[in-house]
Design a protein that fits this description.
single chain; about 475 residues; mainly alpha; Growth Hormone, Chain: A; disordered N terminus
Length: about 475
């Protein structure tokens, strides 16, 4: 893959900027003296309201990043029959999400540099809404795929920019905020999986209404981002405040105010000077060439393998249970159980990961849960259905772990933008064949034996590359 163009972080302040949010004064005393590193002013009410608005926007956006997929998985049999899809064509349909994520996700950094991340996320939510509104009106497979692709395009760019916005607005709470929107993502995924079939039945059994109802949630997600459209430089200058959730500092990070003050007689630099120097350094620093980093490649492959398992699960697991004799509504609830496991764990795992130098043990633990779940799904799909659903749900929490590692494997905002786009684009390219291959194997083998063996076998390389990606290093060190 060719190197991405070397451009600066869109959120980096210009050289000489004091790197503070609008409305926060430079002085803390009536004398007008500039604040020192040890007594920087607290963010004002306007800035706190901004952070609350961003947090609400993140949660609502995350709620919309999977219903377009899991709602379809619950009704895949009905959609396939109505649109005359074979098993292989249905496999293509389940491969569309990672394809769109790979193709459109790589454009997110370029769009963010030009328009600002908030503008791009707002447009992404609007694209999700439009695609979900149009999809029920499709009369053929091509039109259905096109409407789905529009919604998935919005999901793709928002996927890439979520870690970027967290890193910029909440630099001292990467673990907590990643956990918050990962938890919301899992909640939206599980609700769509569990509620789509009952809602469809309540609306007269028409799958078109059952899928179209999720457009209302997407419309709601557009609203919090609208006030942020006025500020193109959405990531500028959010000062880190002391917090027990602060992520471990990387090598070369500036000392905290208290540490600087405690050094015998050594004067701490003034806040304005330090911020200005930081802005100048950021503007001069070359962007890392991600393709030269082994950690970036390991993280991309890890992201791809976990995405393969996730999209196979979301697209095919209800059908596996239905073929084993489980009723359609129960199969949807089982998928919801798998997805809802990410609600508590998506909050716990990122916080735990930011407190560990090496995230390899978490990778292995999640992989072993997946291996056990797929083994049980092969031997007794109906008898132990609830257990396998829980285990596979725990395994799917590799997604918030991967997002957390993206934020931890780079020191700078520019590095996070590039690493997020690279890892997710490479990862989704890797995951494209998985759901399609499962559909082909299912159609030609006449059962789920071979597809489940494939699913379980992929957990082994996922644990290996995840352990490599979890090592305590940054892409800047390797580039």
């Amino acid at each position: 893959m060719p190197d991405e163009p070397k451009t600066l972080d869109p959120a980096a302040p210009p050289a000489g900027d004091t790197a503070r949010p609008a409305g926060i004064p430079t002085a803390t005393a009536s004398s007008g003296a500039p604040a020192t590193a040890g007594d920087s002013p607290a963010p004002g009410p306007a800035h706190r309201r901004l952070l609350v608005l961003v947090a609400v926007g993140l949660v609502l956006a995350a709620l919309n990043l999977r219903p377009a997929i899991t709602s379809l998985g619950a009704l895949l049999e009905e959609v396939g029959e109505d649109l005359h899809m074979s098993g292989s064509v249905a496999g293509v349909l389940t491969s569309v999400p990672p394809l769109c994520f790979a193709v459109f996700g790589i454009t997110a950094p370029r769009l963010a540099r030009r328009f600002g991340p908030a503008v791009v996320v707002c447009a992404g939510m609007a694209a999700i809404f439009t695609g979900l509104v149009l999809r029920p009106f499709a009369t053929g497979t091509a039109a259905f795929l096109a409407a789905s692709a529009l919604a998935l395009m919005g999901i793709a760019v928002s996927n890439v920019l979520m870690p970027v916005i967290v890193k910029r607005y909440f630099p001292d709470r990467v673990g907590s905020m990643t956990g918050l929107y990962s938890m919301a993502l899992a909640l939206g995924t599980s609700i769509a999986a569990a509620a789509t079939v009952p809602m469809t039945d309540a609306l007269g059994g028409d799958w078109r209404l059952g899928l179209g109802v999720w457009a209302a949630l997407a419309a709601l997600a557009v609203l919090p981002w609208l006030p942020l459209l006025r500020d193109r430089d959405t990531g500028t200058a959010v000062p880190a405040t002391a917090s027990p959730d602060t992520a471990p500092r990387t090598a070369g990070a500036a000392p905290r105010g208290g540490e600087a003050a405690s050094r015998g007689g050594e004067a701490a630099p003034r806040g304005g000077e330090a911020a200005s120097q930081g802005g100048e350094a950021a503007s001069r620093a070359p962007a890392p060439r991600i393709t030269r980093s082994r950690t970036a490649w390991a993280l991309g492959v890890f992201f791809g393998l976990q995405a393969t398992g996730a999209y196979i699960t979301m697209g095919w697991m209800p059908q596996i249970f239905r073929d084993a004799g489980v009723p359609a509504a129960t199969a949807g609830v089982l998928l919801a159980v798998t997805m809802v496991m990410g609600v508590p764990l998506a909050f716990v795992i990122p916080r735990l990961a930011t407190r560990m130098k090496n995230q390899g043990p978490i990778v292995v633990a999640l992989g072993l849960c997946g291996l056990t779940g797929y083994t049980g799904l092969s031997l007794a799909p109906a008898g132990g259905a609830w257990i396998w659903a829980v285990l596979l749900g725990v395994s799917n929490c590799s997604f918030p772990l991967a997002l957390t590692m993206i934020g931890m494997r780079s020191r700078t905002g520019a590095g996070v933008v590039r690493l997020s786009a690279f890892a997710q684009s490479v990862g989704y390219l890797i995951s494209i064949p998985g759901p399609l291959l499962v559909g082909v194997l299912y159609q030609h083998s006449g059962g789920w034996g071979l597809p489940i063996v494939l699913m379980g076998g992929l957990m082994v390389p996922q644990m290996i590359v995840g352990t490599l990606a979890g090592r305590d290093r940054t892409v800047e060190d390797e580039c």
